[in-house]
Specification:
The chain is an all-alpha fold and 111 residues long. It is 85% helix and 0% strand. The protein is built from six helices and no strands.
Length: 111
């Protein structure tokens, strides 16, 4: 095989691999957008105060103490709101859909 032939075959194969790779990135980014939309829908089942607690603690990284100070409530009240919110979210179909791929990966590993 001549060098030119080899190079042409290699560049065609490389081009195909690049398209496949970029396609995977696109799918991952699209899935991430869908997951965020599903999470937002799941948060709608919460009361406004529960939603504030979840956002501060899980999305903004506040400790329970910091979140309680921010919301001007006791740490115990915040803990109870967080517990109630997590229980309600665990029943949300939107959250289950958002986490579906992770659940499928775990199922494959256990099988």
């Amino acid at each position: 095989m001549e060098h030119q032939e080899w190079f042409e075959k290699f560049s065609i194969r490389l081009g195909a691999d690049e398209n496949r790779f970029h396609g995977q990135i696109w799918v991952k980014e699209e899935w991430r957008i869908i997951q965020l939309a599903l999470l937002k829908m799941a948060l709608h089942v919460l009361s406004p105060k529960e939603k504030e607690v979840v956002v501060l603690v899980f999305f903004e990284g506040y400790t329970e103490r910091e979140a309680a100070e921010e919301l001007k409530i006791s740490k115990t009240r915040l803990h109870n709101l967080k517990k109630k919110a997590l229980k309600r979210l665990s029943k949300s179909s939107f959250l289950k859909l958002a986490l579906a791929p992770q659940g499928l990966k775990k199922a494959k590993v256990q099988a």
